[in-house]
């Protein structure tokens, strides 16, 4: 596990990519730092009558391409450095997806599981009111992240609308559909990941029909990735969650409907009947065509990377592969689809939601799906072509492509 904090890692990644394109060091200096960071105190009256003051952050990294965009997380371990790093990664992710957005991220230092619903609502409204002056549909558009959800977004939107005196639906995304949320948001990240895997398979001549798959993590991203790959004819033979992993054979692949039913009923995939139990570590090293890490960061390291047999590693999770592991996988011919490309479907449907809010006209699930596919296929092709051009792995290519877009916008605007 790396000792560096997330911001140091983000800066290092930026510097490495900048080297490939020989980027002016003044520009690198500018891109290392967020444009603005706001630290706020949020006083909340607790149910027992006491007052607690929580700390909240919003980091706005760069808005050369459009308004800042990125989630808000509620977690006891949230730090300023983490939020700054995440906002930089959002700049690159939005640029890779070709969205007219910059990067932002927010966080509140809190364990939301210890708060009542009323306390959570007061905290959410307090946080949003405190950052409201630097937020807006043309300024910065938050969304959910760890332990925030459509209900949090509904409170954010309502608080902002109350402050400004009219309904401002486009100020946050991933809202409930009844108040401006988009069709397809729930499955957007896994759907986007599927489209990228489909293109990657074509590019390396792998037939998705009958390709074998292992998925680590069976939450929002992992479970729906199972569904979409199964629909395309792929054979998901191993899945896992925090309790363990299960394995079957390609002639008896795991069925999404059954695994999700067992997961919902018993709390874990390990209770599926008639399968072999393995560990999460073993799952990563299985002889499959496609491996989808969709749980935690830093799970593919220099220790296990030499044993990875998959042809494609599609990063549903953020940061599952360490830089050392990246080099090993590249040398071994494994095609890694990096997080800022592979899991950009979520922010892409957020963009589509924002567009619909601004039009006041809403698309059908089919229309949203077609637009998402268009975004993801283009993103894949742009990163793929960059990788060929610079002879680098897909992660470096994604960074190079993203940085080039941001820098081009900065040049035209006369910032550099
Ligand atoms: P989630 O909370 O719905 O699911 C996480 C899953 O990981 C759960 O099944 C959990 O049991 C499992 N897990 C936890 N610890 C594990 C362990 N040690 N080994 C194996 N599995 C373990 O989360 P999610 O929304 O599916 O997000 C998963 C990853 O994808 C995260 O890294 C997240 O940042 C990233 N991501 C999510 C979205 C999104 O739209 N949901 C978008 C971009 C990136």
Strand content: 15-25%
What distance separates the N and C termini? 37 Å
User: Helix-strand pattern, N to C?
Assistant: HHEEEHEHEHHEHEEHEHEEHEHHHH
- The CATH class of the domain at 188-342 is Alpha Beta
- Specify the overall morphology: globular
Query: What is the level-2 CATH architecture name of the domain at 188-342?
Result: 3-Layer(aba) Sandwich
Q: CATH homologous superfamily name of the domain at 188-342?
A: NAD(P)-binding Rossmann-like Domain
Estimate percent helicity: 40-55%
Structural class: alpha/beta
Q: Largest sheet, described in full?
A: 7 strands, mixed
Mean pLDDT: 96
The spatial strand order of the largest sheet comes to 9-8-7-6-10-11-12
CATH topology of the domain at 188-342: Rossmann fold
- The number of distinct β-strands equals 12
Quick structural gist:
This protein is α/β, with parallel strands linked by helices.
Describe this structure in words.
This protein has 416 residues and is α/β, with parallel strands linked by helices. Among the domains are: 34-168, Rossmann fold (3-Layer(aba) Sandwich); 188-342, NAD(P)-binding Rossmann-like Domain (Rossmann fold), CATH 3.40.50.720. It is 45% helix and 17% strand. It contains 14 helices and twelve strands. The protein has helices spanning 6-20, 25-32, 80-96, 117-131, 150-164, 188-204, 220-231, 256-266, 280-284, 323-331, 339-342, 345-359, 365-390, 394-412; strands at residues 36-45, 51-62, 68-75, 102-109, 140-144, 212-216, 235-241, 244-247, 276-278, 290-293, 312-314, 335-337. It has a seven-stranded mixed beta sheet, sandwiched between helices. A five-stranded mixed beta sheet has the order 1-2-4-3-5. A hairpin with a 5-residue loop joins strand 1 and strand 2. The model has no long low-confidence stretch (mean pLDDT 96). It binds nicotinamide-adenine-dinucleotide (NAD). Nicotinamide-adenine-dinucleotide binds at residues 189, 216-222, 240-242, 280, 294-296, 316-318, 343, 346.
